[in-house]
Sequence to fold (119 residues):
Amino acid sequence: RIISGLKETGVPIINFSTGTSTLLDSVAKAGGDVISFDWRINIDDAWNKIGHDRSIQGNLDPTLLFAPIPIIRERVHDIMKRVSGCPGHIFNLGHGILQHTPVDHVKAVVDMVHEYQHE
Fold:
């Protein structure tokens, strides 16, 4: 009901949930212009359940930001490759940034996404 009421305003709605991989069908039915989800679900499976008629946001595991840069790059590129050719993906963490996350790793992820070349 909340999302339905907000739709009338014309403001884009991001439906964010975490820990709801088994409820993704229900989250998608609840509505939203963008469906955001966490790292616990494969991005391909999520988009297939949500449908390609709207955008998705996600889904890098925030704990990965503590890993060495080459491992982070591998996962970022994996996500980017999976969504290549699918319009409407917003790269994001699958949840918020954790306390003590190395700032240089966060900056590196932003650079990786901006510099990614579709293969």
In short: The CA atoms of residues 9 and 17 lie 22 Å apart.
